[in-house]
Amino acid sequence: MADLSQIVKAYDVRGVVPDQWDESLAELFGAAFVQVTDASAIVVGHDMRPSSPGLSRAFARGAAAHGADVTEIGLCSTDQLYFASGQLSLPGAMFTASHNPAQYNGIKMCRAGAAPVGQETGLADIRALVEEWTENGAPQPAGRTGTITQRDTLDDYAAHLRSLVDLTRIRPLKVVVDAGNGMGGHTVPTVLAGLPADLLPMYFELDGTFPNHEANPLDPKNIVDLQAKVRETGADIGLAFDGDADRCFVVDERGEPVSPSAITALVASRELAKHPGGTVIHNLITSWSVPEVVRENGGTPVRTRVGHSFIKQEMARTGAIFGGEHSAHYYFRDFWNADTGMLAALHVLAALGEQGGTLSDLVRQYDRYAASGEINSTVADQAGRMTAVKAAYADVPGAQLDELDGLTVTTADWWFNLRASNTEPLLRLNVEARDKATVARLVDEVLALVRA
User: Fold this and answer.
1) What is the pTM (predicted TM-score) of this model?
2) Rounded to an integer, what is the distance from CA 338 to the centroid of its chain?
3) pLDDT digits (tens, 9 = 90+) for 343-390
């Protein structure tokens, strides 16, 4: 019997196929999803992984058997599934394992209007039903069987994104895009069609075995090819998408990575021009630049914990217009508070194309501090090491400590955050300061305590 504790995570289902889960389990998840959401109709999509079509169809069968009409949108990015959920006002399920290796697959679920389904908002109930049914057998459906129909939403998705950004004033740009053999290869050509962009595609062939590199641009080794191509072709910008194309990473004309914090600040300034006085959400390990830029542009910054469920909750609570994370997830009120890297990419292309300078010049105003990036340490005693670090900095003159998410220590000239992974024996460290020397000193100090 499947061990659901291993595959039902905080925000989604994810595990190795067929070792940890398979189509028979996917069918039960479909039935449970319909029961928990009380849905009479749902929308289902999937990525390019070899196991995705079968798992997706099994989920649809389970949902239809329990009375829901299923609209299958087939191959899509995760944000395209969110679009369909929002546009059609239907609960949705996306079959993807994002940037995980080929043998993995998963389900990201949402309620109508792309509202997230996590442990506190239905996922725990879905798991409980699936566990009960795997042990005792699923109940026989009562009433009508739902229909399963197909619908192509790619053109509507692309048109909706382009309606949210003024792209009429951009100059011709040379744009390299690395899709990592993921769903960006499916969506980018349609979204960028008609723009004055010389598109140089890399790894657009849909291949869930990821033959060229992992579809995880957060790892520097996976954007090396993109950086080289930008330099070699003299491109204006490089974009990299993860496997399900909901995150977008940017490199400038020199092939240098642009921090997601700088992209958050840039997009925030543009969204505030559209929605004056709006609220912008940022997690606590984005740069100081983000709240500074938000205030400079007349907005209100709100700081949250790391994780899309917290961002989306705060988006809904505050009516925020935009939210950004250090991991290159970007959330828009105009996109049902859901995350879409593609919309962020269009904002960056518009900002770059509306002026004659380079991307590195453009983002300099949004990239004001030195940062370490995220540094992971494997530790046996997470709580003990956190306590040691807290004790070491408790009496530093002028330091403020808070525990909104892990431990954050802030002074006038620097801050660092140390937090535990939910799924691995890791502590994650992020440091920012006014100069590189201070960053290096703090990294050495904190890691000495963490790895003692």
Assistant:
1) 0.95
2) 9
3) 999 999 999 999 999 999 999 999 999 999 999 999 999 999 999 999
> Quick check: helix, strand or coil at residue 282?
strand
Element (H, E) at 322: strand 322-324
Residue 403, SS3 per DSSP: coil
Residue 142: C-alpha distances to residues 35, 48, 66, 130 (Å): 12, 34, 7, 18
CATH 3.30.310.50 fits 370-450, yes or no: yes
**DSSP 3-state assignment of 58?**
helix
51 among known catalytic residues:
no
- Dihedral angle of Cα 373, 374, 375, 381, to the nearest 10 degrees: 150
Q: What share of the chain is helix, strand, coil (3-state, %, to 5)?
A: 40, 25, 40
Structure tokens at 112: 């109508």
3 state SS of 193: coil
Catalytic residue among 51, 52, 85, 98, which? 98
CATH of 4-152, one of 3.40.630.30, 3.40.50.2300, 3.40.120.10, 3.30.470.20: 3.40.120.10
Query: Which of 414, 330, 412 has the alpha carbon at shortest distance from 369?
Result: 414
